[in-house]
Amino acid sequence: MSSSWTRKGAFRAVSWQVNPPTMTPAPGGPCGQYNPPDPACVLLHCPGASSATFARLQLLAVACILTTGRRTLANLLRIVPQLTQGSSTSYYRALSQTHWSSLQLACALARFLIRHLLPTGLITLVGDDTVDGHKGKNVYGKARHRDPVRSTKSHTAWRYGHQWVVLCVLVRFPFASRPWALPVLVALYRSKEHNRQRQRPHRTPAQLMCRLLRLLLGWFPDRQFRFVGDAGYGTHEVARFAHRHRARLTLVSKFHPDANRYDPPPAYSGKGRPRVKGRRRAKPKAVVARTHGRQRWQVGWYGGGTRRVETVTGTRHGHKAGRGLVPVRWVFVHDRDGTHRDEYFFTTDPDLEPEALISSYTARWNIETTFQEMRAYLGLETTRGWCAQTVLRAAPCLFGLYTVVALLYEQLPAGAPSGGGVDWVGKEAVTFSDAITAVRRWLWADWVLEQGDHAPAFAKLAEPLREVLRYALAPAA
Questions:
Q1: All structural domains of the chain with their residue ranges
Q2: Which of 131, 174, 226, 293 is most buried, judged by most C-beta within 10 A?
Q3: DSSP labels for 98-122?
Q4: Residues 28, 129, 329, CA angle at the centre, nearest 5°?
Q5: Is the pTM of this model over 0.70?
Q6: What is the pLDDT of residues 8-61, one digit of tens each?
Q7: Phi and psi of 443, rounded to 5°?
Q8: At what angle do helices 89-96 and 388-410 cross, to 10 degrees?
Q9: What's the CA gap between 343 and 365, in Å, rounded?
Q10: How far is CA 188 from CA 130, 202, 302, in A?
């Protein structure tokens, strides 16, 4: 869903030439090696769409970046009224009725992102789900979902809307102090009641995540991935899936301190039914209690910093009835500074060092930052489509637009308008609010205000007044 624009006419497939960044690439780590793209252009390719639909989708994409309020289609069209062609209903039909593949669009975005930012090395993926609140009685896929942010052990808070399962690629930009989680694939979780009414098989969020991972494995058959998920994606089913694809996929997630562990099954004796598991071993909590010599590490931590920890680790097999054994390495983590609770993690790669495992899992928190910034700066939860096609296209396109904004900011032309981001005490690096502000100012100055009747009038204004207009048109939120 990335795009290129021209100053003449609305959204033709013309790329712009951009000077490569002069910043030094960041060193490799859990997010892989960063390399600035050589062909510094971002291209929107919408497979299966007609030229008219293609132009309308590009217009909506740019209007969505420029808009600072709700991302309803009516509000988007108010931002660029002189660039719309034909009836406004044709833009509604671009999401609800026209033929184009959002999955192929996601494939094009993922290929561009990985080809230009992570051309070599291990690719770290993070996944989670988030609830997009949506009002209305006849909204497709709407259900009641537990809100993990407002819920506690004694109280469950519910939200009505859509639950999206999101898979992101972790990228460490030179201008940021922490990795950014850039969404590439999104799936809608449908409730059991919804699937029962339509006689469809029910799939859990973990099963949907396995489908998204299978897509990426198919799109990039020569790359290796490490997927990091929270406890909801640390199930035996996901671990079994990662073990089946262990040549190219590793799972890192939370582990239960009372999880059962087993030895591999003994050789078949030739009598009776073959055993599926070996002798039962002590649970991780018991192993930690009797272990005195702990390893000490300096590991990557939440927020991009480092932390001193000590660990206890072990390798055995996890088992679930009817699902077989999965070899795992589990790690107990104790924060030596005493500010974080003790944790248990595991991975399906028995050879993965505890330092890399812990750094990978703590980097998962960046997807929560992505969800928060999506709500604050890209209007997640403000769309109002209700039919199936619109629901399945609008919100996933917003997630993809987050990735597009990051790519555009990384490739801004030299001399493009910048600044105007949000500052606070202690801020040292670029955040997404800075990125979207710079991209908005660049689009207003070099694209919108340079077209049609805007250009002569804007050129007559004094530079200080033009700067005020750019600042007013492109706030961070």
A1: 253-266+275-354, 414-477
A2: 226
A3: S---HHHHHHHHHHHHHHHH--SS-
A4: 55
A5: yes
A6: 232 222 222 222 222 233 333 444 443 333 323 444 556 677 888 888 888 899
A7: -65, -45
A8: 100
A9: 15
A10: 10, 12, 28
